[in-house]
Amino acid sequence: MSDSIFNLNYFEIFSQPVATEPDVNLLKEKNRELQQQVHPDKFANSSDAEKREAMQKTSLINEAFDTLKNPVSRLQYMLTLKGVDMNGETDTSMDGAFLMEQMELRESIADVRSQADPLDILDSILAELKSKAKVLIVEFADFYQRDDLEKSREIVRKLQFINKAQKEVNEIVEQLEDELI
Amino acid sequence: MALLQISEPGQSTKPHEHKFAIGIDLGTTNSLVASVRSGKANTLPDEDGGHLLPSVVQYSADSIIIGAVAKENQVKDPHNTISSIKRLMGRGVEDLKAQFKSLSDVLPYEFAQTDSAVPKIKTAAGNKTAVEISADILKTLKSRGEKTLGDELEGAVITVPAYFDDAQRQATKDAATLAGINVLRLLNEPTAAAVAYGLDSGAEGIVAVYDLGGGTFDISIMQLKQGVFEVLSTGGDSALGGDDFDHAIAEWIIKEAGVNTSELSSGLLRLVLQQACKAKEALSEHSKIAIAIEFSADNKWSGILDREILNSLIDPLIKKSLMSCRRALRDADVEKDQVVDVVMVGGSTRALRVREQVGEFFEAEPRVDIDPDRVVAIGAAIQANALVGNDAEGNLLLMDVLPLSLGIETMGGLAEKIISRNTPIPVSRAQEFTTYKDGQTAMAVHVVQGERELVDDCRSLAKFELRGFPSHVAGAARIRVTFQVDADGLLSVSAKEETSGIEASVEVKPSYGLQDSEIEAMLKASMEFAGDDKDARSLREQQVEADRVLEAIDSAMADDGEDMLSAEEREAILSVRQELEISRHNATETQQLKDAMSRLEKVSAAYVARRMNASVQKSMAGHQVEEFK
Do residues A105 and A56 share a domain? Predict the structure, then answer.
């Protein structure tokens, strides 16, 4: 079957063009629509084979939705569409300025607890990370369009760094809030 | 007799077939069963009109008492009367030690010393696991459903706390199997509540369901839209509930009375816990309450518990629940002000302090206008009804998530996450691994669940081995491990060595759970002891069959009995039919009913043949003979 959902890429599943910043509301809408058709609960009275197929289809849709929802996994997936698999890659070269910046950021995260207003500082760090990510995503779109896969990869690596920093900041925010409550 | 039912393709002989299904809320403190009748979902009462079945089971050598009576007998017979068994579901001996640290040495049951990783409670009826005890509760609910609905049940939706891990879910499913229930789905409690609340109120938008029960706490952030209930995130604590409020109060009483916990008998401890629970409930109405307990002839303690003291005792517990709320909001990427409604579910949300604190946290007045005890069972019934195909419009859709991350152990005792928490389910994900030694031909996979980095801090779900793949140098073998989580939130894992194609597949049987063989043995035991039950069941099955036969012959006779049968033939069939109807209502043996059915079959054989011929001729009319070659 050529029109099988299993032959579509993640963007095609949701009838969307390949894009660095897809319309998330549209994605959500389409996701609900698709699940209405294929969710295993809709096949509770069907044969085991149909049930299995429903589970596989829904699993695929969930995986696709999850991948496209998050910017880093989305861009990484866009690279796989051009034959670049970033999982387990050993080449992790990155420009020195970015690395310096990241190291400074890590340092300020590390000693935030000794500051007078740690939550405010963390909030501003989060905002900064967010705007950096935004700029990078725009840059990615440009490189990707011009098939500059090496530069595209580097941006995804940078975004992974930022992602990780965001997670760490959130964890500290969580800890601090737990202590306050 | 099937041949009597001749119908055009696509046309059912039965104009309207309504299938019966129930929703079961298997709670820590109370359990309920509900169903949808005439389009309305309601909980089902017992003979005395009570809807709540206390989840308490009392065992004696020759009988089992379940519910209110068992609850009353707790103080008298503490060793054989088991309550709050849900807290032990899917838990190992080691887990329990950690879970009940405060009152651990005085948990009022005696545990049998066995090799099994599953704790077994000593009772007058033998050693019982949590699965068996839960199965006894489920049986009572199932039979209440059958009695009320007067029909064979297609199956049941059974609710579980959203935060239940794989072992706890599996244990619940095992209990249902043991109780002879066809599980249509395991449904998360807050999702069930949202369904009942959402359909009733017509609310749309982002809703937080705060579900604090007797022993478990769940928070789910959900998006409600046109019959679609989408869980954005879930969090909680599968060992936090009203029971812990009781324990905190009991500890306060014991301290105030100046008695030593280790000197208390099991019966006395039960009494203290009961008084603590009563005081807690009373303080939702009154500002203070007097408690009096006779610890011994010369220690008759009495004291006053007011709201202020109560608050100081339970605040740390409520705070714990609010931390989960904050994490759930963050995971859902939702701000507090986007939440349109906070729905309060579970008996423990009756505590005023809980309402107050939750309201303060979400900066909104929580919804307390729905019955916090019944809403979960009602939601489950609505889902059950839809699953068996009674939902005409078919718009209801529940999209749930995985509550806790799943991963496997890697070198150095680290847990590598394969599927992270709050991923929508069902979900399937594969990961590739390799060997670390030359010539390695086997590999052990240890599946864990939890958020922590170290395997030891996560929950061990299962270990399995993949053997016999060809010898490679280190790092050359490619082992692909696939995790599949189904819509019930249950995991199965398969592993394949890619260069050789050798495959291993395992249903994840929890490390602390029951082995299939153990469940089989229990099933067998329950069959032996329940021979009467089984006979009753098979008689019931034959009665259903007889009803079908009677319906078929009646509708056939009404159709063409006049045309196809002589008066004598009709007479003969009708008289045998009459006998069957009498047997249907009076027969006490399955065989009697079977005989009556086969007599009717014999006497109507010629009629069946004639109807077949007529039907074939009719369907061929207007066609060329060649078409059928």
Answer: no
> Which pLDDT tens digit goes with each residue over B61-71?
889 999 999 99
- Count of domains forming chain A: 2
CA distance B161 to chain A (A): 19
Nearest CB among A45, A60, A174 relative to B388 is that of A45
Chain centroid to CA A99: 21
Q: CA separation (Å) from B150 to A150, B176, B530, B597?
A: 69, 20, 21, 22
The pLDDT tens digits for B57-99 are 999 988 999 999 999 998 888 889 998 899 889 888 777 666 5
Interface of A with B (CB under 8 A): 32, 35-36, 39-42, 44-45, 55-56, 58-60, 62-63, 65-66, 170, 174, 177-178, 181
B428 neighbors B494 (Cβ within 8 angstroms): no
Buried b (16+ CB within 10 A) or exposed e, B58-81: bbeeeebbbbbebbebbbebbebb
Rg (CA), chain B: 29
A74 part of a folded domain: no
Which of B224, B393, B427, B488 is most worth mutating to test chain A (most A CB atoms within 10 A of its CB)?
A: B427
Interface touch A40/B426, C-beta < 8 Å: yes
**Residue A77 belongs to some domain of the structure:** no
| CA neighbor of B1 nearest in space, from B552, B540, B538 | B552
Q: Are residues A132 and A172 in the same domain?
A: yes
Domain CATH number, residue A16: 1.10.287.110
Chosen domain end from A20, A51, A69 = A69
Mark yes or no for CB contact A36/B427 under 8 Å. no
Structural domains in chain B plus CATH codes = 20-241+314-399 (3.30.420.40), 242-313 (3.90.640.10), 406-518 (2.60.34.10), 532-620 (1.20.1270.10)
Decide if A66 and B225 are in contact by the 8 Å CB cutoff: no
pLDDT in tens, B279-311: 999 998 899 999 998 888 888 888 999 999 999
Distance CA B427, CA B401 (A): 9
- Say if residue A65 is in the same domain as residue A20: yes
Give the CATH number, domain containing residue A128.
1.20.1280
User: Which of these three, A69, A87, A112, is where a domain ends?
Assistant: A69
Residues in B touching A85 (Cβ below 8 Å): none
In a domain, A17, yes or no: yes
Same domain membership, residue A176 and residue A106: yes
Rounded Cα distance between B16 and A105, Å, is 68
Q: Do A105 and A141 fall within a single domain?
A: yes
| A108, A63: one domain | no
* E strand residue ranges, B370-497: 397-399, 406-410, 414-419, 427-433, 443-449, 459-466, 479-485, 491-497
For residue A153, give its domain range. 96-180
What would the pLDDT profile of A57-113 be if each residue is shown by its tens digit?
Answer: 999 999 999 999 989 999 999 999 998 887 766 666 677 788 888 888 888 888 888
Residue ranges of B 401-440 with Cβ closer than 8 A to chain A: 423-429
Q: Could you tell me if B479 and B448 are in contact, meaning their C-beta atoms sit under 8 angstroms apart? A: no
Question: What ipTM goes with this model?
Answer: 0.88
- Measured between alpha carbons, how far is B623 from B339 in angstroms, rounded to an integer? 65
Measured between beta carbons, the chain B residues lying within 8 angstroms of A36 are: 228, 395, 397
Instruction: Give tens-digit pLDDT for B493-544.
Output: 888 888 777 776 665 555 665 556 665 665 565 555 445 555 666 777 788 7
If you average pLDDT over residues B229-250, what whole number do you get? 91
**Residues A113 and A172 both lie in one domain:** yes
Arithmetic mean of pLDDT, B450-474 = 80
Does some domain include residue A25?
A: yes
For helices B567-586 and B590-603, angle between their N-to-C axes, nearest 10 degrees: 170
Predicted confidence (pLDDT) at residue B101 exceeds the cutoff of 70: no
